[in-house]
Structure formats: structure tokens, C-alpha cells
Amino acid sequence: MSVLSIKEVSYQYKNKYQTVSALDGISYEFNLGKLYAVIGKSGSGKTTLLSLLAGLSVPTKGKILFHETAMTELNLDEYRRDHASVIYQNFNLFPLLTAKENVMYPLLLKKMEKTKARQQAEEKLCSVELTKEKQKRMPAQLSGGEQQRVAIARALASEAEIILADEPTGNLDSENSKNIINILKELAYKEKRCVILVTHDNKAASQADSILHIKDGKLEV
Ligand SMILES: Nc1ncnc2c1ncn2[C@@H]1O[C@H](COP(=O)(O)OP(=O)(O)OP(=O)(O)O)[C@@H](O)[C@H]1O
Ligand SMILES: [Mg+2]
Ligand 1 pocket, 57 CB below 6 A? Predict the structure, then answer.
């Protein structure tokens, strides 16, 4: 059974002056235990697709099913808190919390005990090679690549079965990006999560089980 299935999904950004068709009739099935890569030119619709899968926006046409239940029937706040964790293109860290507190935050939201949340946050931050000293800093006191690793650690710490990552290796050197891809692969294979990775990096994409190529809002086959 698919964890996520999208059926004939289209999405349009609308404002007073114009309508932009960002996705046009996309259908696909995503399964647990697999790593997916979404590739395509800038503006092709990759982030839009991720936002829909994350429950941050709702298709203009078509539908998305989560374990065979239409997303429109779900409480999307709950879906985002418990089932889908997003690593954003611009990291989205809380500026007034330290790196460690950023990772602890979603765990505390789920009522995890503070000591346990702190321990889990430290463990995940160490796994992306952020030192104990840097874990105490605010995002603004970290480099772009370090902030990105904090965002990744936050997704690792969550127990969400769906991990959505928008260019998670965008600001990283090749060594670090290899590590991140390996971590994402482990999440898919060892922890049986569904990992969906948007990337411009062909080497990263080639490691995925399936590649979705988006062109002008359509899925190329
Ligand atoms: N808020 C918005 N309002 C109007 N149009 C938008 C908005 N956000 C994105 N778009 C348009 O929708 C299309 C798809 O954008 P999207 O962000 O999904 O592309 P992308 O594939 O993620 O690109 P990139 O690789 O540059 O991140 C583009 O034409 C973009 O200009
Ligand atoms: Mg994008």
C-alpha cells in the first residue's frame, strides 16, 4: 500500500493579476522504505509538489491520499506534526532558539520528556557532525551549510514516516552532501521511511530508487 498517492494533481498560484500553473496533472505513488529524487529545472514545480505533499497547500485539482485517506479529510496540523517532516530550501530554523533547541522543539511539541528530547537532539546533531559547542549557537551564528545540517537533524529526530527535503545538500561541500545522502538512505532503508528529495545534484539523484523528472509542471516519463 502506498503511503502517499497523488492523483491527477494540478496546482495554480493565483493572485489579483495572474494565475501561474505550477503543476499540471501529476500522478504518482510513494512507498515506505524508498528514497525518491525529484529533479527538474528551476521553476519546474518541485517545491510546489513538496508543499502539497507536506500538507502546506492543497491541490487546485486532483487529490492526494495518505494511506488511502484523502488529505482533505485529515487534520493537516496533525499530519504535519506527526507524519511529515520537511527540510526546507531556506532551512526555516527558529532564529531565537539554539541549534539544539531547534531540534528539540518538535519533540517537545509531541510531549517528549525534556531530558530525552535533549539527548535525542544531541545524538542527531552529532550524526550530522555539528559539534557540541556549535549546538549551543543560534542559527545566525552558524554557516549556511551548518544551518542546513541542523534542519536535517531536526527531521532525523522526528519520527515522521515521510521526510521531504528540498535541496538539502544545496549549501554543502561534496563530503558533507555525501554524508547527508547516506543518512537519508538509512532513513529509507533501515527505518522504512518514505524519503523524497528535491535535488539539482545528479550524483545524489542517481542514488535514489526512483527519479521523478518534472518539466513545466508535468511528470516526464
Ligand atoms: N507564491 C507564488 N506565486 C506565484 N507563482 C509562484 C509562487 N511560487 C512559485 N511560483 C511559480 O510556480 C512555478 C513553480 O515554482 P517552484 O517553486 O515549485 O519551482 P522549483 O522547481 O522548486 O524551482 P527551484 O529549483 O528554483 O527551487 C514557477 O513558475 C514559479 O515562478
Ligand atoms: Mg524550489
Answer: no
pLDDT of 92 over the 90 cut = no
The protein residues having their C-beta less than 5 angstroms from ligand 2 (an ion) are 47
> What spatial distance separates the first Cα and last Cα of the chain, rounded to whole Å?
22
Residue nearest to atom 12 of ligand 1 (CA): 22
3-state secondary structure of 182: helix
**100 CA to centre of ligand 2 in angstroms:** 26
CA 47: distance to chain centroid? 10
Q: How many domains does the chain have?
A: 1
| CATH for 150 | 3.40.50.300
The 10s digit of each residue's pLDDT in 126-171 is 988 899 999 999 999 998 888 988 998 998 888 899 999 998 887 7
For ligand 1, whether the C-beta of 100 sits within 6 Å is no
The reply to whether 174 falls in a domain is yes
Question: pTM of the predicted model, to two decimals?
Answer: 0.90
Reported as a single tens digit per residue, the pLDDT across 3-18 is: 999 999 999 999 989 9
* Number of residues assigned to the chain: 221
Beta carbon of 139 within 6 Å of any ligand 1 atom: no
Q: Is residue 6 part of a domain?
A: no
CB atoms inside a 10 Å sphere around CB 20: 13
